[in-house]
Design a protein that fits this description.
single chain; 5 helices
Length: about 130
């Protein structure tokens, strides 16, 4: 892999980390908006609590990824990838169980799937 390709992959890891921070901050500050963006009903405070759990996880992973380098950065990015896989699986299970309407099923499955694909590509490129 060329230096340019490695820099591109490293930039991808940084971009994904920045998106995690942005999503985390937004979900913490305005869980109602995040629920709406994901096509889910805002069921009030219990829902807000769950969104804030997601928010903290993503923000911490993003900050830790950006604040580290080398093997440690790769480990944080890999942890984020594992969370994205679990999020996608949770979305798929919910779709299978008809927890979502057809119109709201996309984001809970597609957003993590895109993050997994992008994160796996970046980690593969950064590891060479």
């Amino acid at each position: 892999m060329t230096d340019a390709s490695r820099r591109l992959a490293d930039g991808g890891i940084a971009a994904l980390a920045a998106m995690r921070i942005a999503a985390g901050v937004l979900a913490w500050l305005n869980p109602r908006l995040i629920a709406r963006l994901f096509g889910m009903p805002d069921s009030g405070r219990p829902s807000h609590y769950a969104w804030r759990l997601f928010a903290v996880r993503d923000a911490v992973l993003g900050v830790a990824t950006l604040g580290s380098s080398g093997g440690q950065r790769r480990a944080f990015a890999t942890a984020g990838l594992a969370c994205d896989v679990a999020d996608g699986a949770a979305g798929a299970i919910s779709v299978y169980r008809n927890d979502f309407t057809r119109s709201t099923a996309g984001a809970p499955v597609l957003v993590p799937a895109i993050a997994v694909a992008f994160g796996a590509w970046a980690l593969r490129g950064a590891g060479r």
